[in-house]
Amino acid sequence: MNKRSLGWLHPAVIYLIMLILVIVVSWIGSIMEIGRAGGNDELALRSVLGVPGLRWAVRTAASCLGNAPVGNALMLFMAIGAGRGSGLFRALSRLRNLSPKESTAFYISLVVLAIYIFLIVLGVFAGSHLLLGITGTLKGSPLYDGFMFLVMLGIGLPSLVYGLSTETFRTAGDCVNAFCTILPPFAHFLVTMLVGAQLLQTLEYTNIDVLLGITDNAMRIISFLVYWLPLPIILVWYQKSGKEV
Predict the structure, then answer these.
(1) Structural domain boundaries of the chain?
(2) What is the four-CA torsion angle of 237, 221, 29, 25, rounded to 10 degrees?
(3) Is 38 left (phi over 0), alpha (psi -120 to 50) or beta?
(4) What is the pLDDT of residue 3?
């Protein structure tokens, strides 16, 4: 598969095609006056191509990205960059062939990770349940809302320890650079998130989701898949395009 064909399979392109289909379906459906009526509940299919729809599309084009987990994605990319830049990921792939210095650094980083996980467990189950919500559950808790931040620390801290122990990192600047090494494909992911967010928001505006019987819980699952499924695809695509990840 060549680079050009890979480009056509880019998730952002696929989402854009799906977005166009949703717009066309909503336009045809509104002409046919497709809707649902029952008692006081009346719901009609709304077109994006009408005057109200176009005004809505222009008004929300930029703000829709705020619905996407951009911050979480950025932290995840930074964590991956730290693991890669420090050499920790490479060490994981060749555990039996590590030098004595690398082995020592690897075990030190494991100890740091174990301490970090222990502190997370304490925050959940011990004392004041620091990482749980006010009701003592995961709903609305720091653990739930800040999960990706905690994951970034869980990858970043051992990576920094490994990089410093092996002298891959010699200065503070080296540490910062490691967190930035994998950010180029993040731009692809950001564009994909933008189109994906517009797709999800258009589904809701046109009422297609409700008319199809998609529940709120099902929509949350669909949103999660729309935002995160492209991640491995983009990383693989970026690598096959001849760019280093």
Answers:
(1) 70-183
(2) 0
(3) beta
(4) 47
User: 220: closest CA among 212, 234, 209?
Assistant: 209
Contact between residue 186 and residue 73 where contact means Cβ atoms under 8 Å apart: yes
pLDDT tens-place string over residues 205-240: 998 888 888 888 899 999 999 999 998 888 777 666
Distance CA 187, CA 96 (A): 36
Burial 137-168 (b: 16+ CB within 10 A, else e): eeeebbbeeeebebebebbbbbbbbbbbbbeb
Three-state DSSP class for 237? helix
- Which residues are bridge partners to 43 per DSSP? 36
pLDDT in tens, 176-212: 888 887 777 788 888 899 999 999 999 999 988 888 8
172: tokens are 């503070």
What sign for the dihedral angle of Cα 90, 93, 95, 97? negative
What pLDDT was estimated at residue 242?
54
CB atoms under 10 Å from CB of 213, counted, come to: 8
CA distance 32 to 6: 38
Residue 174 has pLDDT above 60, yes or no: yes
159: its two tokens: 């990576």
In sequence order, what are the beta bridge partners of 38?
41
Q: What is the pTM of this model?
A: 0.76
